[in-house]
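Before the break, one more example. Copy the sequence into your notebook; we will annotate it together after we see the structure.
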Amino acid sequence: MSRLLYKAMPHLTVRGRPPDTTSSLLRRELYLAPPFLVGDYEPVAVKAHREGWLAERVALARTELENCTACPRNCKVNRMEDKRGACNTGRYAIVSSATPHFGEESVLQGWNGSGTIFFGMCNLRCVFCQNWDISQKKNGWELKPEEIADLMLKLQNETKCHNINFVTPEHVVPQVIEAIALAVEGGLYLPIVYNTSSYDSMKSLELLDGLVDIYMPDFKFWTEETSIKLCKARDYPSVTKAVIAEMYRQVGDLVFDHNGLAKSGLLVRHLAMPGYVEEGRQILSWLRALSPDTYVNIMEQYRPAFKVGVGEQRAREGFTKYEEIDRPVKESEMEQLRKHARQVGLWRMEDMELRDKPLTEF
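Here is what the structure looks like once it is written out:
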C-alpha cells in the first residue's frame, strides 16, 4: 500500500465524507481505499449460474417478450412472434458492432478496453442523437442469443476486454439475459455493464437483478417539458429517477479492484446540454441525495447532430431547428456544473485519466 493511500484511508472510514483535497492523484488513491475496494470479485451472473437459478430467469425473460413491456413504451406486442413496437425490434436483437472501446470511462476501459456491444434501434427519439444512424435506422444484424454470447466470449478471450458493456439495451433486455446465460455457461467471467439512457421499465430491472454488476445510466433531463421536446418521452424524468434508485438498491456505490477497474456498483452519466445548466444542477443535487458517494461523469461531448440545425415538423409547435441547442456546450457551463457537484457534496467524479497497465500484465 502506498504511503499516500495509507495517509488517506482514515478519511474514508465513513461513507459520504468527501476528502478535503484537490489533488487528482490523491482522489484516485482514495477511490481505492475502503469501503470502495474489493478483493477477489465474482461477477453476479457467474454466481447466479453457480447457484442454479439462471435458467429460470431466462424463462421469465422469454415470457416477457410475449406481451412486451420491456421498456416504458409498453407496446405489449408478441415479440416471440417477431412482432414489433416502438423500438422496431422483434424476436432477435440487432447488433451494430462489438469491439473493445477506448472512449468509455477510465474505470471501465482500463488498458485493454471495455467490451462494448452496441444494439441497434432505441426506444427514445432524441433529436440530437449522435448515433442516429444506428438508433433510428436498422443498421446492423439480427443475432440469435448464441451469436451474441459468442461475441461476448470473443471480447473476453481474444481481445482481453475488462468487462462486457451492453450499449442501449433498454428494448432488448430479454435477449440480453438469454445471451448472458449462454456466455456464462461457455466460460464468461467478466463483469456485466448495463449502459443505458435510463428509459427502462421496472419489470426489466427486476429481470436483471442479480445479473448486472455495473449499472451506467445517463440522466439527461430534469423536466417533462424538455423531455417531450428533445427525446419524445414526457415521463422520462420520473422514469429515470425510479430506475436509478432501483439500480442503486441492487448494486450500491461503485467499487474497484486494486488496479482501479470498476467491478460493481452505480456509475451515473449526465450529458451536459447547452443552455440547460439549471436542469443539470437539479440532477446533480438529486444524485447527491441518492448517495453522497455516487460516482458521476459530467460529460461534455455534446455536439449538434441529427435533427438539430436541420429541423423537423412538430405536431403542435410547427417546424423547428432546435436553435437553442445548435451549439457545443460552453466551458463556462461545464464549470458551473462541476462547481455545483462539489458544492452539494459529490466528490467521486470521472476524470478520464487513463489507467496504467499493471506490471503483472506485461
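The radius of gyration is 20 Å. The mean pLDDT is 91. Try to locate both features in your own notes.
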